[in-house]
Amino acid sequence: MQASDRFNINSQLEHLQAKYVGTGHADLSRFEWAVNIQRDSYASYIGHYPMLAYFSVAENESIGRERYNFMQKMLLPCGLPPEREDD
Amino acid sequence: MYLYNLTLQQATGIVSAINGNFSGGKIQEIVVARGKILSLLRPDELGKLQTLHSVEIFGCIRSLAQFRLTGAQKDYIVVGSDSGRIVILEYNKEKNVFDKVHQETFGKSGCRRIVPGQYLAIDPKGRAVMIEAHKSHTIVYSICGVDCGFDNPIFAAIELDYSEADQDSTGVAAGEAQKHLTFYELDLGLNHVSRKWSDQVDNGANMLVTVPGGGDGPSGVLVCAENFVIYKNQGHPDIRAVIPRRADLPEERGVLIVSAATHKQKSMFFFLLQTEYGDIFKVTLEHGNDGVTELKIKYFDTIPVTASMCVLKTGFLFAASEFGNHALYQFQAIGDDPDVESSSSTLMETEEGFQPVFFQPRGLKNLVRIDRAESLMPIMDMKIANLFEEETPQIYSLCGRGPRSSLRILRPGLAISEMAVSQLPGVPSAVWTVKKNVNDAFDAYIVVSFANATLVLSIGETVEEVSDSGFLDTTPSLAVSLIGDDSLMQVHPNGIRHIREDGRINEWRTPGKRTTVKVGSNGLQVVIALSGGELIYFEVDMTGQLMEVEKHEMSGDVACLDIAPVPEGRQRSRFLAVGSYDNTIRILSLDPDDCMQVLSVQSVSSPPESLLFLEVKASIGGEDGADHPANLFLNAGLQNGVLFRTVVDMITGQLSDSRSRFLGLRAPKLFSVKVRGRPAMLCLSSRPWLGYIHQGHFLLTPLSYETLEFAASFSSDQCAEGVVSVAGDALRVFTIEQSDQGSYTAEEREAARKECFEAAGMGENGNGNMNQMENGGDDEDKEDPLCDEQYGYPKAESNKWVSCIRVLDPRTAATTCLLELQDNEAAFRFIHIYRFLEDGRSLELLHKTQVEGVPLALCQFQGRLLAGIGSVLRLYDLGKKRLLRKCENKLFPNSIVSIQTYRDRIYVGDIQESFHFCKYRRDENQLYIFSDDVVPRWLTASYHIDFDTMAGADKFGNVYFVRLPQDVSDEIEEDPTGGKIKWEQGRLNGAPNKVEEIVQFHVGDVVTSLQKASLIPGGGECVLYGTVMGSLGALLPFTSRDDVDFFSHLEMHMRQEHPPLCGRDHMAYRSAYFPVKDVVDGDLCEQFPTLPLDLQRKIADELDRTPGRY
């Protein structure tokens, strides 16, 4: 690898993708995008306590349970991934 | 439009709480995070919670932890927030502030997945802190430190790897996804972290608790999982025990631990774990040389579900409730008596899984509640109205949820607690309290003056009338006080009666036929004003005699007078203030050299009624501010109801820096009282106000009490700092509660079993839309002796709803009508029409109309009913048997949550798509949308401001105003088709016109209600908001461009000179979702007095002002 490669846009992007989950790329599928959005949303709900409290009032659960439910939903937020088209 | 945002009542809910010795020494303290506020609480000896310090950090606190350096006596605070930084704070008890000891930046900010700060873990020996920094393809549930003595620090984490589940379309990988408990070791020598050990853990795992190690215990961690608690350690078999479950819990529901506290003594330790239903279990470990042999879970007690629990070394349990009031409990026992217990050694595994253990909740056995801290969280709805016809409107708020919900009436002002009310034989005009000796701790007499007599009451175990006090009782009194060290003085219209300690009485009579009209005294000096305007000055001499020193003729009658308190170490005070009916206040000298010389003159807007010198030691820090030089303030109550305050130069007597404030419709009478041992001022206008020092600042706050005539401080055995006052023909003794949060007091009217709101008096003809629906909780067994408030409703199956409508009379707090809605149907798919009976005291069902969706919004419109049913806006007419559809519009994007109307315009709020402005054309019977918003806003609250303007709040904590541009608005009003043709054309699937955002502000808390109101009599209107965290705020419009300029510049300087404590950038915080627009953050500006004096001066210089001193 040449020294100049380190600074080109692709390697910068790769660096970002490695460092920050959810950084998109050209071949991002609709499913992957949605999964990221959903996980980010759940993380945001958990991080913003007032919002978590708002949800738990609506669902009549304790805040601790609501947080746990959101974390559990982060595993498969959009259901099963679509079958891969082998290429 | 420019607005000024100000928090009226700080958030009362608690996100997280930690305990330790933050000020050093042995005092146990609690630090709580209330969303964007960090406060330090301390339970005093009696177990009353006091707030020592509270600071807004302009950021969102996600996690808190405390640590102590080895061998140190003081705990530090680690704060994980949305600032993209980790901050270590230390409480500085001298200045009463949190000092930032260290700040480490990661980079990105916000409460996001990639921003570390959600989880913090501390090495129990205080050597390291671990922050979860979003490991890729992993969901982390919890982290904690592992106590391994002084070996390398180890941290544990519950992790779930999702990388395979994301790739596998068959779902096998997802099904097999397994949570792991992973240990990370920090090698202190190499300064390097390595993954030490990882093991499978129950898939319901959600929380970790550190088990004491080193010499104190077996080390390792407790893994709390759904239904189980598991002890795990490296190289140790799992020890698992089942969490006992309530007997009435539906089978499909698990039991989850939501909060935990550890108690550690030299010889033993135990854990208290609380479930999501509120039951606390005591967990103990049997351990020996070969590790842990048994894990026991014993039912302890049940208290409302907490967000955090803290066990204090002084034998208290602080329970920070997730909703509703927090409480401080004292331990009566530590659960040693036999009770339902599950153990790892009796764990039974059957074919259906592990055998459950059942228990029945019971009354408190081990804990006893000794104090509670009020929490309004969550404010679900709020209405501001003046139902009591008081000077200022009351705020009626619905707080809490489920069984702990309540309707609370909030009034601006400090709470008072009334200790005694007694009727007097006549209508008293004044009241005083006196001690017999300067050194006495308590008052000896209460002296009440009537129009023609004086009544003396002696204070002992009881308060009773006495006649041997030496006071003249056949005349009214003008002043009664202690004079010199141990003699009493009574000033009456015809003279002064001086009662010596040994009972001798000296009487001084007024010359000629003149009478005394006003008196001022300070214990060593007395000045009386005779009718006609003559002043006579007396002093107490060395022998305790009252000696006439000087006479002085004023130009006219004296309206009021006061002598400044004697400075410490001096014989006399130099200043006499005299108020005259010619609208002036004069400062006269009392020094022997220039006695009765006028030092300065101040003209005021109206004749002064009452004068009071107040020495204020306001400070910029310190718990008491004692080491700061005092300022002498002259306060004057003017006849037009204004309190006028000016600074008196301690040497020359010159007056400067005068300020006025309107207090009420009556001339304020001023009285000196003590609050927490420091001088304070009671002002009695049409309502009482208190000027006092709170956390180092002078505040003037109204009291929530009725109008009083006259008052005096009162101190006795039972009540150290009380006030005795007269109003009407009653004598009232009360104390002023030092409310923690400041200026709002809640009066809890009723713990309404279900949340509901009566909207009758509000001119709203709608009905069910104010009801909060409650999921679950279909309680049938009302015989249950345990109150639901403490134990919660039994959980019902999902999709069961109960709701009710309640009509309350706020005066009597009585429910005048209660309608329970049956069979789930009530909450859904029906519109009920009720008729008010008996003056609105009760309701009668007229008929029900079934609709196809959930009607979330109702509003009356031109004598008809507008209903938002899902995405349909429909107009109904009232029929005899049911509602009759008149017209509808189905073009709303998602679901209608609010409808407001004004003239022929209809303002519709969509749950996800902000506001839509609609019009109804009667001639064509058509509803159409003529304007909408361009921003997707998830509405949680909305309020109609004016013809073209709406205020809204979204789920993410923003408040915003949108306005239809003037030209568009005119065009629509002038267009004979009302813009209908344009509407038919549409634009990009939306309405042809767009509203403009004119105000935008990030509050940082979900706003659930908005309302416009005027809280000050005669003051302008502002928009009030209530939030989920239980705070109240106001947005006040600026009235002049100068003010806007000043405050924006002050805000700018404050941002620069005083950045938020936890490292969040203030501008970024207020613009978290949308750039802040035309709102000045008052909460930041109000922090100005907390700055060091030189910084205050620097900012003031740049703004061309001088800093005030109050």
From TrEMBL, chain A:
One of its GO terms (cellular component) is precatalytic spliceosome. It comes from the Eukaryota. It holds the Pfam family SF3b10. InterPro entries: SF3b5/RDS3-10, Splicing_factor_3B_subunit_5. One of its GO terms (biological process) is mRNA splicing, via spliceosome. Belongs to the SF3B5 family. PANTHER family: SPLICING FACTOR 3B SUBUNIT 5 (PTHR20978), SPLICING FACTOR SUBUNIT (PTHR20978:SF8). This is Splicing factor subunit. It comes from Hibiscus syriacus. The lineage of its organism: Eukaryota, Viridiplantae, Streptophyta, Embryophyta, Tracheophyta.
TrEMBL record, chain B:
Residues 141-341 form the RSE1/DDB1/CPSF1 first beta-propeller domain. Residues 416-736 form the RSE1/DDB1/CPSF1 second beta-propeller domain. Residues 763-782 are annotated as: Disordered. GO terms for cellular component: spliceosomal complex. Its main location: nucleus. GO terms for molecular function: nucleic acid binding. The keyword Protein biosynthesis does not apply. The keyword Nucleus applies. Residues 831-1088 form the RSE1/DDB1/CPSF1 C-terminal domain. GO terms for biological process: mRNA processing; RNA splicing. It is found in: Nucleus. Keywords: mRNA processing, mRNA splicing, Nucleus, Spliceosome. Belongs to the RSE1 family. InterPro entries: Beta-prop_RSE1/DDB1/CPSF1_1st, Beta-prop_RSE1/DDB1/CPSF1_2nd, RSE1/DDB1/CFT1, RSE1/DDB1/CPSF1_C, WD40/YVTN_repeat-like_dom_sf, WD40_repeat_dom_sf. This is Splicing factor 3B subunit 3. The lineage of its organism: Eukaryota, Viridiplantae, Streptophyta, Embryophyta, Tracheophyta.
